[in-house]
Amino acid sequence: RTEQPLDEEMNDEALREELDLVDEIRTGASLREATLKQKIAARHDAKVIKRNFEVGSLVLRRNAKDSHEGKLAANWEGPYRVRGKTDNGTYFLENLQGKELPRPWNAQKLKQYYI
Hints:
Elements (H helix, E strand, L loop, with lengths): L7 H40 L10 E5 L13 E10 L4 E5 L10 E2 L3 E3 L3
Antiparallel strand pairs: 1-2, 1-5, 2-3, 3-4
Protein name: Gag-pol polyprotein
C-alpha cells in the first residue's frame, strides 16, 4: 500500500470548507424534516373522520369490554342521547330514561345511531 504525503495546508483548508458547509447542511436537513412532518400530518388529517353530533341526537358508545367477556361481546352499547357538547369534541350523554352518564365522551368513541 502506498501512502500519499500529507499536505497539512490542504487538509486544514478542506476542513474549514466543510465547517462552513455544516450550517447549510443542517438548514437543508431541518427544511426537509419540516416538509416531511407536514406531509405526514396532512395524510393523517385526511384519514381522520370528523364526527359532529347535535344536542338531542342518538349515538352509540364504544363498549369498554372486560377481558372475561370474550370476543363475542358487543362492540357498541346504547343508544344514548347527546345532552351537551364542548368546544374540544367531547359530548355529555344520557340514556333514554334521562339518567346522565358521569363523564364526557370523545367523538372518536361515539357513532351516530339510526332508527
